[in-house]
Records
---
Amino acid sequence: MSAAETPDPGAGAAVTPAAREALVVPVTAEEAPATEACPGCGAVLVVVPGLASHHAGASPSCSGLFDVTVRGLRDEAAADVQTAGVLQVATDAYEAQHLLPGRPAAAAARLCLWVARGLDPVRPPEHTGRLADAVPRTLPVPDRWTTTVADVAADLDVVDLPSLVRSWAEAVWADWSGAHEELCAAVDATQVVPK
Ligand SMILES: [Zn+2]
């Protein structure tokens, strides 16, 4: 059965033709919106013409979705340390999924702090550079991801963002399990963890 033969919902149904058209799954390739898989996290998202990526290693749609998802956090981070902490964890989770080849996985190492060590993500920024120097550049990058920004965005209506970011960071950290030892060793080498 083609879309044109889909039974009409009836005169009493509160579905406008336009809304119904948006709900109908396109039946031909010409009608389907173009999608692309993010080279970093693998999220398959609709291509938005003219949209440029703001994040190296991410597709334009993926980086755009991240920007939209954390926009509220960015707006409030300067005035609220808890919000700034959530933004830091979200940024590290995202960056740990969009690592360019040969670059240090400093964001993944910071997830050791926030997830494995349970530190408060509101940290002095000066340790960041030292961490990048301490992380090996040849770590095994995960080839699959349990949770992406697309999953986070999809659940925003039913779960609060701080909880989603926490779950996302934990999932990304778990995905990096092949390098946990090296990442946490880099954290220890920078001596940013209070003894
Ligand atoms: Zn991505």
---
Amino acid sequence: MSKRYARLVLAVVLAFALAVGPAASAKTPDCSEPGCAHVAAIGTTHYDTVAEALADVPASASEPATVQLLKPTNESITIATGKSVVLDLNGQKLTDNGVDHTITNNGTLVIQGSGTVDCETHARGALVNYGTCTISGGTLTRSQEAGTEGNANGNSWYVVDNHGMLTVTGGKIFNTSTYSSLLRNLGTLNVNGGEFENGGIVIKNDEDSGNSKIGVLNMTAGTVKATSTNGQAVQNWATATIQGGTLTGQVIGWSYEGVSSTLTIKDGAINGNLFAVDFDGKGTDTASVKVEGGTVTGMVNTGAYSNGAIQVGAESNSSISLTGGVFTHSVDVFRSGLAEFRDPGKVLISLKGGTGIRVGDESSAAASVYFRRGDFIPDGFVAYYESLQDALDGAGKEADPETNYEGVVTALKTPEDGTVVVPDGAVLTVGDQEYGAGSYVVKSGALQKQEPVSETPATSTGRPNPSTGVRF
Ligand SMILES: [Zn+2]
């Protein structure tokens, strides 16, 4: 047989193989070849592509089929409606085909194991979910992301776009974009674990009211981190509840003409600012933020968006209600914001009900100040200060002759030797001793008044400011 003839025979064989279709050779039952070239497996049956393995999963099966990756592969896959699949990444990498999202789920999908789901293509994601999906492991990312603030730079999109029911219990969803959000939610998103990280917006809990889609976000655990200065760990345009977990970056409830939002913080840690912001300043819809628990280390305030930035404290229809929680930022932040809204009937931040609010870290504090808020927080709130003098200064700023308000400062540690000044309107309690306004020399924990000051009669009615009905 000449070499030319051999090639001709081979060509005929190949043509025949193509004519009968790839299905004939796609599936190898009980593949036991070590280091075989197959890409995916269901049990001991191996497949040339992930799509072929998925095609072999029966619809409406009572148990999900586990499809395991065997090799890194460039393939975009779709889980069909009615199919239930566990995709075990098995330390491998699944990358898109350059055209479609890497994974489109219309059925029931669990993504588990270590490994990576990557999307390298512009305007495509690693996962688009229309069905029910759980992420318990792996890293989902867009490794070629180029988006920077205000510019996609030819390659940018969400890593995950959810229109169905998505629950994250583990794994990592990661990107570096300051153009695209990491995850857009237009369905139900349960964050019960896992790590989320992006440059700009991490979780965009969105709405598409024109298509009757309203994102519902429930977070109980996990970490969400925005790495850029003005990044938002959560950008809420719909309904979000934070009951646990750690959010680093700003957490902002937004409103837009025709769109109101509700963000409720019940527990968890927010390491950043917490704002309620009116995007377009039209003021007919409300961004509502309610804090019932948890900790917030940044500013807490309402605002409006204009000139490309959040104008903190600017008049808007946004609202923040605080009925609990621990705030480690200065009390002055509340006051500076609140002071903008003295007009009667325009109390945009309401401090009503609840069991009081703690500001600062009790464990390391030198002193506490009890701020009585009358109608606003019946039980008042307590601020903790790192230094006794800071506490006294804070109490002095709160003092209000119009309401005969007194700030009560309690030393939590033995005062250090030196001098303390108790301002007008403040009372310092050290042990069972009370000290009124004046300057004191502190020696071995004992206070000695430095100079006489005129006594101010202390009458405390707790009445609200008669001119406004409110007292800030
Ligand atoms: Zn094999």
---
Amino acid sequence: MTTIRPGARGDDVRDVQTRLAALGYPIDPEEHGVYGNATEGAVREFQQRRQLLVDGLVGEDTWQELVEAGRTLGDRVLYLRYPFYRGDDVRALQARLNLLGFDSGREDGIFGERADLAVRDFQRNVGLVPDGIVGPVTLDALLRLRPVGPGPGRAMVREAEVMSRMSATLDGSRIAVDAGHGPGDPGGVGPTGLSEADATPMMAAALVEELSRRGAEPFLVRAEAAGSSAAERARAANDRGAEILVSLHLNSHDDAKAEGASCFYYGRERYVSRPGQRLAELIQEELTSRLGLKDGRAHPKSLPLLRETHMPAVHVEPCYITNPGEEALIRQDSFRREVARALADAIERFFSPAGSSAPAGDASETAGAISGSGPAPGEQFEHRPQNDTEHDRASSA
Ligand SMILES: [Zn+2]
């Protein structure tokens, strides 16, 4: 293109002025169609704001930037194509995805492979067809999700119910069951020496048995994983296409009297997995009402396994291993079976279509949608504490 410079006049100048005005750099009406001082001043201000070379001329870069700055999310359908879509709409999309916990990479305004993966990840997890196309339905789902913060909690719970459009039943559902501890990773230890590494595999086995009996297809994460780290277990659950994950632990506290059940789902500063929250709350309800355990409630937490798995995932601590009474209970086969039944009841309720409604959207984008699952924490790996005890203390705060 020919560089537009002071003194120029005509349609090109008018185009530049119209774009500048739309971006909040109004031009003196007397200068319309003429590249005068006011226009040059506006161009310089725009260049400065957008971190371009400030020369007061409209060359290729400045023109491109003017075009990109004029893109508003929703103006056009975005998807991965070559050359990449560029613009402030893409930047807004990236920021939105990142804010919600889906890793779309740098907010550079370029719709590349990373953004494509993040969009598909998002779609998959709100039950849309993961086609990578940001049209009205996907955009609506994106904008409807409110990042967690000091804002209204109830509204988000309602959104969670809309989102958790569970069309599946327990029958045939793939459920990842994780014994939170194993060889080389004892976890908390009770007064008579029972460790989480002793107890959680037994709890996991009981849950697998109960879920199998009800027609689900549970699998033990540790048996599938390449190693025992949270990242390796998360990968195993992801690779197997688990619809939900339940990681079993026991709580610990210096005070031997501390007792009861707690549950954790993925959440961080401005984001929570709402389906994860829903599942965690159902589990709390079942554990407390069915077993009479004290309610330590469900909490958001950015634990590595919760963060790196792509399905609604919960970290359950039905009891305190440090409480002598609860440690004794956990040793009982009948109690572990009862815990498994409570968890299975909660999972069954989670999968039940009753009480949840389909998200608004046109049939073409929702047809064939997979069963609902949690907004995936799409971020990079977070360093995992060596001793894996942070979660065990989390609910004692
Ligand atoms: Zn643990």
---
Amino acid sequence: MTDAPDVPAAGRYDVTPVEPFGVAILAPEPGARVADLDVTTLRALVRAHHILLLRGFAPFGGPEELSAYCELWGEPSVWPFGTVLELVEKERPEDHIFDHSHMPMHWDGMYRDHIPEFQIFQCVHAPGADDGGETTFSHTTAVLEHADPGTVARWSRMTGTYHRAMEYYDSVTVSPVVTAHPVHGAPVVRYNEPVAPGDGDFVNHPDLRFTGLPDDELAEAHRTLRAALHDPAHLYVHSWRTGDVVISDNYTLLHGRNAFTSGAPRHLRRVQVLGTPPLVNPGLVR
Ligand SMILES: [Fe+2]
């Protein structure tokens, strides 16, 4: 995996590596509070390692407490529902986000005015150990570093045009598949994985079109890109435990979800935190 810089002030915490990338801090004693960890240090850890897992800490008391904590990180994205998205399966969902199906790889904010830098997840209740529902994160800088130059050159010719209408937006975004990290400029992938049109169980397919390569080469480019994003060398699969807090780097990673058993008690909360300054979505058309 890519060498990540050490974060000097992190020495005061017991920071352990997560495979294949990311770091974890386990609560030093029962009842320890996430809010007592230094946010400047945690932010530097996420920027360096892209995933930070905080495990065993006292849970936030409710969505308001989580939201207040996230404000220590920066300006939260505000949605029609507020800042805290309650990710729970709905009985008859109008969109796959609230279903138990898989969620294809994407980046958060792709259809919004601003792209958040961080996602902060709290696991209120984990699904059962055999229920699936893992959140998947792909390290796209590592994907590009490890692919052969000819393959990267083909991916770099692709542009995605994405249209998605759901409860909270009806937007079109156009983005090159390979683009530059908005802060340090390293190459990253911005891609929403297509779902096979024949997957009739998938609720509310987005409308995805890709240009820049002839049709036969496009199919091959999707296949190689998908394989690289899901290569275990670049993919962190997070199996939730109740109480976990996971903070991810949305500028570098793509993320998705594995399908889970319908009716499993999976309950996550998610807050998005904008960068400093907030990143205006470069791809939003409308
Ligand atoms: Fe997402």
